[in-house]
């Protein structure tokens, strides 16, 4: 098992049984995505990427009363006194946050959000950017920028790729809280775990971790690459990947194991 030595770090990292848990660890600020928090999060994802097959699945969870409260409004407001009224800092923050969300999608390992608390604005964006999400019974989600004169335009990018447009627009236009069961119904989360999000996410991660790491890697990348393409383009992309996947060691082992009626042993 590997884990952070510094328990005060903004992101705690622990790996066991091919599952890495990343824990947002700034409860006093409700795990807001300050520029330093974004940087620490991005660095943690780089660590996970370097772990190779030691990590097959990632769980993202949080300490404190909120999963993530979105952008750090105090930090943003402090830069209104800059000569440019904060424009350069705002641009830097949005670039960094967008890059973080893309890094989650681009990581060739499934990322599961485990949400037991409230996820607002860019925190809701974070949940939507993960490949899967498990909610606890008390989880809540919202994009309340309209309440403070700031439409959640960047959270809308991830949100609109998870739920139907009318559901996304209702959340964005009203800023209203969505409970766990509603989030499940509209597709923002995969399941609601009565035992809590962490327990549910761990069970889901353990199931995925048994599967072929190569197949998962091929699959996640292809899923997002073909999404939104024309039907012909999507099949061209997916067909080429299927050929590449068939030639990979995990497919050789997996198909051989299936035909031989034995359990596959994935190559290291």
Number of helices: 11
Radius of gyration using CA atoms only: 19 Å
**Low-pLDDT segments, ≥5 res:** none
- CATH topology of the largest domain: the name is 2-enoyl-CoA Hydratase, Chain A, domain 1
Strand order of the largest sheet: 1-2-3-4-6-8-11
Main sheet record? 7 strands, mixed
- What's the order of the H and E elements? EEEHEEHHEEHEEHHEHEHHHH
Shape estimate: globular
- The CATH architecture of the largest domain is Alpha-Beta Complex
Strand proportion, as a percent range, falls in 15-25%
Query: How many individual β-strands?
Result: 11
Write down the CATH class of the largest domain: Alpha Beta
Structural class: alpha/beta
Helix content percent band: 40-55%
Number of domains in the coordinates? 2
Q: How far apart, in Å, are the first and last alpha carbons? A: 17 Å
Mean pLDDT: 96
Family: Belongs to the enoyl-CoA hydratase/isomerase family.
Function: May play a role in fatty acid biosynthesis and insulin sensitivity.
Protein name: Enoyl-CoA hydratase domain-containing protein 3, mitochondrial
Organism: Methylocystis echinoides
Structure description:
GO terms for molecular function: hydro-lyase activity. Pfam families: ECH_1 (PF00378). Keywords: Fatty acid metabolism, Lipid metabolism, Transit peptide. May play a role in fatty acid biosynthesis and insulin sensitivity. This protein is of the alpha/beta class and 268 residues long. 48% of the residues lie in helices and 16% in strands. It contains 11 helices and 11 strands. Helix 1 packs parallel to helix 3 and helix 9 runs antiparallel to helix 10. It starts with a strand and ends in a 9-residue tail after the last helix.
């Amino acid at each position: 098992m590997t884990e952070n030595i510094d328990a005060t770090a903004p992101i705690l990292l622990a790996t066991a049984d091919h599952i890495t848990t990343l824990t947002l660890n700034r409860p006093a600020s409700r795990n807001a995505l300050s520029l330093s928090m974004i940087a620490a999060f991005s660095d943690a994802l780089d660590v996970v990427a370097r772990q190779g097959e030691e990590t097959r699945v990632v769980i993202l969870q949080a300490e404190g009363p909120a999963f993530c409260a979105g952008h750090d409004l105090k930090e943003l407001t402090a830069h209104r006194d800059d000569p440019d009224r904060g424009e350069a800092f705002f641009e830097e923050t949005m670039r960094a946050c967008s890059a973080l969300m893309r890094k989650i999608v681009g990581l060739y390992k499934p990322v599961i959000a485990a949400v037991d608390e409230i996820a607002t604005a860019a925190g809701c964006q974070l949940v939507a950017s993960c490949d899967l999400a498990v909610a606890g019974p008390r989880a809540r989600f919202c994009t309340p920028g309209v309440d403070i004169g700031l439409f959640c335009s960047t959270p809308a990018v991830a949100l609109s790729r998870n739920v139907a447009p009318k559901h996304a627009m209702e959340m964005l236009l009203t800023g209203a809280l969505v409970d766990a069961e509603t989030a499940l119904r509209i597709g923002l989360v995969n399941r609601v775990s009565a035992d809590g999000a962490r327990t549910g996410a761990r069970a889901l991660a353990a199931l995925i971790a048994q599967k072929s790491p190569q197949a998962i890697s091929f699959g996640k990348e292809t899923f997002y690459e073909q999404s939104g393409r024309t039907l012909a383009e999507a099949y061209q992309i997916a067909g080429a990947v299927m050929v590449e996947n068939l030639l990979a060691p995990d497919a050789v082992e997996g198909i051989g194991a299936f035909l031989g009626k034995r359990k596959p042993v994935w190559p290291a």
